[in-house]
Amino acid sequence: MSAAPGASLRSLPCHGLERRRRSLVSAAWLLCLASLGAQAAEPLPPAEAAAWLQRMADASRRLAYEGVFVFQHGDSAMQSLRVANRPVATGKDSRLTAMDGLQREVRCTQSGSLSLLTEGGEVRAERRLNSRHFPDLLPANAAALANWYSVRLGEASRVAGLDCQEVQLEPRDAYRWGYLLCAEKNTALPLKAAMVNEAGHTLMQYRFAEIRLGAPPKNVAAPLPEMPAAARPVATESVGVRSLPPGYTRITAVKRKLPNRGDEVEHWVFSDGLTHISLFIEPARQPVESVRGQSKLGMINMLTRQVGPMRTTVLGDAPWPAVEAIAMNLEARPAGAPR
Amino acid sequence: MTALHNLAAQADTPPRETRLSALLDGELDDAAARAMLREVVANAAQREQFSEYCRIGDALRGLGHDSARLRGRVMAALEEEPTLLAPMPKAVTRQPVLWLAAATVAAITWGLWSMAPRQEDHARMAANEQAHLAQAAHDDRMVPYLAAHQDFAQAVVAPSEMRFTRVTLAEADR
């Protein structure tokens, strides 16, 4: 999304033009992903595509590994992070540690996920509502993604001294970004992941610099400290969604306190398994100005607007059409309306 | 006794088509999904059936090159389906694409409209004001939301730079 915020008003598409636009979009995605080094190939048959996606998803949770990866967001400076994962019967047991800048750590165990920040000798801990981090980016049931992405195999490559197979995920509509992954030859663990927009810009990329597979890392996760729950389920809903972009479902609806704010807001999350979009709902204390926000290169998109008596903020690392579709389909519900 | 057990087990297991559809719709639990996927990959007939389900899903969503032709086939097949007057037991609550094939034509039409975001929605932002808003004030106000979204974001850190623009919505959406 390189267009300037507020300048993306589209006219109503007629059916034929829309279909043509889709095939052009598909061709553009192929070019974008090919420009990242992956040779375009025929899309895999759906069953094979689903199998590849599931293998990669399983590998990131079920394998023992320890390594350092670099992360770059747009054209910002690179960051190094250490990751360690130990397979457990259910869920995962992992630790992610930032090696640059502030001392930050994310711990994920069966009992939950925690973010730890050390500043001035003081450790601040916050519960997280989710436990996803590289290389564990694909959902547990990844086969369903074959509905929304065409999967193609790219070239054989090499990352962190290991052979890997490039796998392209080309979105089939405008509601998600494209991905280029490189799956380790034997285990299918993603050693590299890049998220690409339709203009071919790399929005975000991860790449292992070194990795050790197979040996269970020691001291991955000591028991997490006791902490109050970060959120509680939403009991009543004052806002509803008329429709969602294809493939998206609501995966979370909780009341929570926002960092550095005392009051509670409702936090809903919609996802297709790969892309996550948040909706925050709170009483509007004064008339809400509708505001669109966009990060550099357009990776984060956001729209704030008033819906009935509520202030709503929709934001996600998702294409603008997906954020816009959710925000513009919100409607006020009468008090006590069923969910 | 064994035969009885087998019969009981068969009665508890949903038909293969149902499980295949549930796999594609992301509705199986992790273990069942993996088992089903192994079955699909190992069996040519099931691979083809899986592909056919994908094509049907694409056609119903208006994707794919021959979507009109395939949609026509699906609709024709549905018209030939007998209308069942007896109440049917409701196995699972589902709303995904493939289950639409078991519904009536009218239900499919309604389902498609209600599932897909309407294209008109994109045109609802009737006008926009290009004036960028005071950056610092909005950055400060947005930080808590961005921080909360970090629990689900793919980026390890939130972006440091956001641009904000005031927009004017169509009357109906204010």
Output the structural class of chain A.
mainly beta
Poorly predicted parts of chain A: 1-21
- How would you state the average pLDDT of chain B, rounded? 60
- The DSSP helix count of chain B reads 7
The ordered H/E elements of chain B are HHHHHHEHE
Residues in helices of chain B, as a percent range: 40-55%
Quote the average pLDDT of chain A.
82
Identify the overall geometry of chain A.
globular
Number of strands of chain A: 20
Query: DSSP helix count of chain A?
Result: 3
Q: Report low-confidence residues of chain B grouped into runs of 5 or more.
A: 81-124, 126-131
**β-strand number of chain B:** 2
Structure in words:
The complex is a heterodimer of chains A (339) and B (174). Chain A has 339 residues and is mostly beta strands. Chain A has helices at residues 15-35, 46-62, 320-328, and strands spanning 65-73, 79-87, 92-98, 103-109, 112-119, 122-128, 149-159, 162-171, 178-184, 190-196, 202-213, 231-233, 239-241, 249-257, 264-271, 276-283, 291-295, 301-307, 310-316, 330-332. In chain A, the strands form three sheets. Chain A has an eleven-stranded antiparallel beta sheet. In chain A, strands 12-14-15-16-19-18-17 form a seven-stranded antiparallel beta sheet, with helices on one face. In chain A, a hairpin with a 4-residue loop joins strand 15 and strand 16 (276-283). The longest helix of chain A is centred in the first third of the chain and has 21 residues, at 15-35. The two termini of chain A are 34 Å apart. The model of chain A is unreliable at 1-21 (pLDDT under 50). With 174 residues, chain B is mainly α. Chain B is 52% helix and 7% strand. Chain B has seven helices and two strands. Chain B has helices at residues 2-12, 16-24, 30-42, 44-60, 67-80, 105-115, 135-149; strands spanning 127-132, 162-168. Chain B has a two-stranded antiparallel sheet. In chain B, helix 4 crosses helix 5 (67-80). In chain B, 26% of the residues are buried. Residues 81-124 and 126-131 of chain B have low confidence and may be disordered.
